[in-house]
Amino acid sequence: MSWPSPLLLALLLALGACSNSITPHWGNPGAASRQLAIPLAVRLAIRPPPEALLDDTAARRLAEAVADGLQAADVPAISTVTPLPLDWKLDITAAVSGAQVQPRFAIRNADGREQGVVETTPVAARNWAEATPELIGAVAAQAVPRVTQMLLSVQAARAAASPSAISAGPPRVRFIPITGAPGDGNTALTSRMRGFLGNLGYVMQDTAEGAAFAVTAEVAVLPVNPATQRVEIQWIVSRRDGHELGRVVQLNEVPAGSLSRFWGDVAYVAAEQAAGGVQTIIRNASTPG
Predict the structure, then answer these.
(1) CB of 60 within 8 A of CB of 79?
(2) Would you state the pLDDT for residue 149?
(3) Which residue ranges of the chain lie beneath pLDDT 70?
(4) Architecture per CATH, 44-164
């Protein structure tokens, strides 16, 4: 059983088939399949946020809680009011939206250029105003893994980028949740594609802010006969304004029920093959003329 090569459907673009194939539960992806782990070469300075709608005490507690959590995750971080010249910064802000407050964490390099943004779950405005230690701890606990992953993504993108691209800041792509896959397919495909696109030089983020492009996928598993199902994966690339730029389409027939729980190596190899097509669509859209 093999997967045909991905079909790239894009404006003014037609790619011939290549020789790669995808086979469910094929081989061992090895070290590359494990969670991305990159020793961070920067220190992240976190100042007590003046624009987070908190009093001075709560702002200091939040900065300290986030710094402590990052340190526990082996991220060089410090809570300080006086960052060093080469420090990267984590700017914490908050904005009111109706009866809720949205915390926001922006990573900036030593030159002050924004590299990525993460958000945590909105908090009731009344609770945010009270800023109890429990609330501060909960917000920090949610922010830490998201900031850590964004830092790793930024560093991986910088490692894959040219010097000029690093100077301008690595390109950011919003990843919209995948839908339609049975079992753990949505989560597994998301994790694998984010990793592969990060290795190609893109910073993957959940928010739209600062992202020029967006990527998502629609998955359908349809019956062919009692023993067989057809799997269709469509990776969709769009512009910031929502205009669709192209699709990478993957089709295959699998034994019925084989993907009803775990996708395993199928998600790994599907994302690995499709990532190059996604990159081609983005490059074509980024090239003048």
Answers:
(1) yes
(2) 84
(3) 1-41, 156-170, 287-289
(4) 3-Layer(aba) Sandwich (3.40)
